[in-house]
Amino acid sequence: MDKKRPIRFLKPNRFTYKELNKNSEVGIRFLLEFILSGVERQECMSRYNRHIILSDVGPEGQNKISNAKVLVVGAGGLGCPVLQYLAAAGVGTLGVIDFDIVEESNLQRQILFGTSSLGSNKALAAKERLTDLNPTIQINAYPEALTPQNALSLFNDYDIIVDGTDNFETRYLINDAAIITNKPIVYGAIFKFEGQVSVFNYKNRASYRCLFPSPPKKGSVANCTEVGVLGVLPGIIGTMQANEVLKIILGFDGVLSGKLFCYNSKTTETYSLKINKSNSEFEKVLNNKENFENIDYDFNCKAIINEISIKDVSKIKNVHYLDVRELHETPKISLDNCTQIPLKELGTKIHEIPTDKTIIAFCQSGIRSNTAAEILQKHNITNCFSLKEGAQAIIEQLKTEL
Amino acid sequence: MQLQIKYFGLLAEITNCDQETLEFSKSQVSDLLEELYIKYPLLKQKDFKVAQNHEIVSNNSNITNPEIALLPPFSGG
Known about the structure:
By secondary structure, chain A is of the alpha/beta class. Chain A is 37% helix and 16% strand. In chain B, β3 (49-52) and β4 form a beta hairpin.
């Protein structure tokens, strides 16, 4: 549909576009592009046929979808269904940002991932699945955390931001960055059997801060810790978010802005709350925009990883080592006070870790052990450190002690 | 006036019900909250918005509608 991107629809075994491109005879190029645009149009017509035959969408609507750029923050319970439907719908540029890795306990609801994705970064694993789902779109994976330092430049590259995060820090960061860059946010949030959906900062209407001006008091709302959720609920709420994204792209009138939609999956009750715009909430953010990159959004209970050097481990009593490397990795550490659980299995084998000891997580170089320490903290094992060095350093330390 | 109070999210866990009917004789939202804090002391530690007639109201608003909702922010995803 988009004349700038016909190459994406090529099947390399069928076309020799590059060869013909070298032969720069204008007539041949013109003819080729004419044929290709026809092939492309036919592929789109077939893939998006059920959209195009809707009178409210049509080829023009599908063209809007393929020209849209949507960034999904978080590829978790909400992000997965959002990404799945937007990729399938043919959103031309789809960004996904997530620093986290796929754990086994995610698979019950994070439907883009399978057993083979365990241990992979979520943004990268999502891209792999989505590329298979729709190879004709551009998918940008950012395997990193959204921060005040990267948010503005990232948001500037997209038209619509989807909030699929699981913590207040990032929700307020998204809200403020979207106000500064003037982008609509399609918001979704869940708690056990209940979900909330809204569209913020759309056509000069209310923002998230107009509803909840400041983050909740520490400890007043479950955050960071794992709470149970029936896997279908984020599927429902995420799918509603995807629906709102498409409504915005297609320019429909009934976009869910200026109100908060609440859904209870256990009682099937719904509730809509009107949200009035508060100009002062916008002003507060805009007045501080020069300083945005220095704002500390880390106000709640984000895990702070305690790193430790091997020479300091000996000062701690009652230490228990946690080896998060794969079973085949060397050098082997054979100590009575050491448990080996590869990182991707850690979430499901937490019960194997003694709770009355100081846990020293280690790997080969101190990177996976940081993630491990974060996972332990999520499971309320707070007396834990990540070893800055790796397994080799433990062996050398043991030799010195002998 | 008989009020129908709806509780959302973790507030429903504190009150142990999604909604309940209460007899209310005073006038303001703050009066209602005082009564609810006595009945459910844990509510006082929580952040939530009070809505009347599907709109957020402040604590000094008068209660004019029998349907009241207490909504906390959700963070899960």
